[in-house]
Amino acid sequence: MKKILLFLSIAGFILAGCKKETPPSVTGPDVTPPLLNTSAGLISSSVDFPGTESTFILTFDASKGNEGINNFSGDVYIYTGLITDKSTGPSDWKYVKSASFNSADPSAKMNPSGPGKYQISINPKTFYNVPAGEKVLKMVMLFRNADGSKVGRNKDQSDIYLPLYDPAALQVRFTNPGFEPTNIPEPAIAVQMIGDELAVSAQSNRAASLELFLNGNSIASASGTQVSGKAKTISAGQQVIKVRANDGSNSTESTFSYIVSGTVQSAALPSGARESGVTFINSGRSAILALFAPLKQNVYAIGDFSGWNADQKYFMKRTPDGNTWWVQIDDLDPSLTYAYQFLIDGKLRVSDPYTEKILDPGNDPYIPAGRVQGLPAYPVGKTSGIVSLMQPNQTGYSWKNSGFIRPAKKDLVIYELHLRDFLKDATYSTLRDTLSYLSRLGVNAIELMPVSEFEGNSSWGYNPSFYFAPDKYYGSKQALQAFIDECHSRGIAVILDIVLNHSFGQSPMVQMYFNDAAGKPAANSPWFNADPTHPYNVGYDFNHESPATRTFTKDVLKFWMQEYKIDGFRFDLSKGFTQKNSGTSDASVSAWGAYDASRVAIWKDYNNYMKSLDANNFYVILEHFAADAEEKELSDQGMMLWNNVNASFNEASMGFLPNSNFSRGFFSTHTFTKSENLITYMESHDEERMMFKNLNFGNSSGSYSVKNLATALKRQEMSAAFLFGIPGPKMIWQFGELGYDVSIDNNGRTGEKPIRWDYKNQADRMVLYNAYSKFIRMKKNNAVFSPSAASYSLAGGIKYIKLEEGDNIVVIVGNFDVVQQTASVDFGSTGIWYNAMGGADLNLNSPVYNTALAPGEYHIYSKKVLN
Description:
Layout: E1 3-7, E2 43-45, E3 56-61, E4 77-84, E5 94-97, E6 111-112, E7 117-122, H1 124-127, E8 136-144, E9 151-152, E10 160-163, E11 172-176, E12 179-180, E13 186-187, E14 192-193, E15 197-214, E16 217-232, E17 237-246, E18 251-260, E19 277-281, E20 286-292, E21 299-303, E22 317-318, E23 324-329, E24 338-344, E25 348-350, E26 358-359, E27 387-390, E28 413-417, H2 419-422, H3 428-433, H4 435-441, E29 445-448, E30 452-454, E31 464-470, H5 477-489, E32 493-498, E33 502-503, H6 508-512, E34 514-515, E35 520-521, E36 540-541, H7 547-563, E37 568-571, H8 589-593, H9 597-613, E38 619-622, H10 628-635, E39 640-644, H11 646-654, E40 678-681, H12 690-697, E41 700-701, E42 704-705, H13 709-725, E43 730-733, H14 763-781, E44 789-793, E45 798-805, E46 808-815, E47 821-826, E48 831-835, E49 842-844, E50 848-853, E51 858-862
Parallel strand pairs: 28-29, 28-43, 29-32, 32-37, 37-38, 38-39, 39-40, 40-43
Antiparallel strand pairs: 1-14, 1-18, 2-3, 3-7, 4-5, 4-8, 6-7, 8-9, 8-10, 11-15, 12-13, 15-16, 15-17, 17-18, 19-20, 20-23, 21-24, 22-23, 24-25, 24-27, 26-27, 30-31, 33-36, 34-35, 41-42, 44-45, 45-46, 46-51, 47-50, 48-49, 48-51
Helix pairs in contact: 7-9, 11-12, 11-13, 12-13, 13-14
């Protein structure tokens, strides 16, 4: 039996202004609305055609939509703005009512009007204080409690829109079927069988001749302000319902469409076609689009090639296993870029999860001009939400370096950076131009915080949505490739921070299988758990025991390894790759970190896959922090583990001794076999900045105070000397080499931070930079820093590390107390010891070094001169 699927035929336009202050939602372009009140009943108006200057009662039903504020007993507020002819698009709210999303505005308070219902009287012109001459098109709104922690939206989590009408003009709209009050209104009707009749009714704002049409054929007419009829669909294809009103002087109309789908054809993917994403054939004149979407009833490819209509020509076939949908698109111009989406089961429009570039109407308008060249315009008035882009004959990047040899793991010095907070213009191109600074510092690897498309423009990137598309806010694909190529020219590896523990609601994979009522992934999602299996989860939790997730993950890894020549991945929240449910409370953290054989098996599988693609010292780095036994087993497979010693190092740098033992920096304390698989660091993006704590909470004794800038910087230098003295790879956080002293919580934990290149003009900070550079050079150039023997004492005020390799010995000794202390260290040899930091050399008559050290004083001595 064939089925009817309804969707709207879109007509409208995008308009201009600034962003609203509200959590992100997925919205589409402005559209001439065919409706006002909805059968879904989320909002309704006391008048049929509310205008800009008319007063009406707006009613909100909290039991509808996403039910985000349903059964709430406190005060409810409308958070609202306008879409005007000055707006750049549907996310560009004007004249927002309320100073802040998180504060209560008495003038926006709703009045209870029955169980779960709230009302407010609004005259848009005065309520929003709109200046004369600006044309108002729509109200846009959310409903929330006083602090914004509970929010009522549409069922799909989008903003709520209400069209406003010009009373002087003839207006007409549909009253049945009802529609959801999304930016592009969605019909709130059930899917119907072919041959069923669809009841349609419409009304006008004044007496007129009204007529209803199905595919151009009249089905009903009336004089007055109401007309009703029945539309019976008898054949497959797109069916257009139109209402026309004529009052003798003026005529207007509104339309919506529905599709009668034919029988789904079962057919195997053509030979050579990718199982997901786009495969170009016929020299780019044809494309095979494939979408993994088991359990769906039917799928259309829609886009520039179809006029954004659900054309039977682009009705997708389904593979015999029922999992993959595909269609061949012909007659393409290989030189053009095409926008496209998938229309699933007649209602859900999603982008291609495998797309390499997207158009995002809510965020693209705010990307600075020039960052991405040749970006086509959004298909305004034709669709909603994010769309995919494909270009048959796009120009590939011509790589200069094909023989880059990655630094040995033991010699790695990784510089972790976040483009947004490192460079003012936050682009790959400028970062490429900044490499001389990092080369002089001596780092041989750069770790980029996540750069694949994430929600919004300003983010740490741990809220990913499109895993094959570099975020356009940082620049183009070619600019990223050129940056990596230049790094390789300078002997610098590039490591990509990648987020495969979770995804967010902008992801088409999340949207395709989502339980709207519960606000979480559906139980039948091929990729995501309905509920997370571990604490610290954000977004929606991937199920890495699912074959679909395994396939997707491997496709992502292969893509970045081969398309971008990435040298390694840092896997965010790798401990979360488990289906062993340890609970989500803080109390379950210990259970989560316990040895997990299934998690080990997952990581061995992924590691082996990456080795099969690139066995040339490819870096697999885990942010794991699990039991030592589990981490040792993973390290024995060549995986590298993050090792956070921030707390103890910072205690030492501040001059507080009881918790200052940073011996966990040594691989032996983790029971690892090799030092090369433990990446030790004092700072990463996730920790409070050490200099901030030094300056604000540092210890003091008499005139010696760690809160003094010069003193705090010298203590950072001493800490760094010990960090680089610990065998194995190291990581530093951006600007740590200059003593960055802005709190991680400045402007919110993940908010934008001050970019402090001005530090280079401060002599004391450049002393620290030069010390870092020297430590890094010594580590890379001297075999003794990868020793055959190492000993240390790191618990008290006097701390030392002793490294032995061949005929050389290095001893690093320092006083981390805030008062003078006497060091007594067995150097193991008498005679001349060279001072690596440029001070006087040491002539020991006894193997034991006995010297009074001032607070913060340290030395690096060696039996042979260090390079």
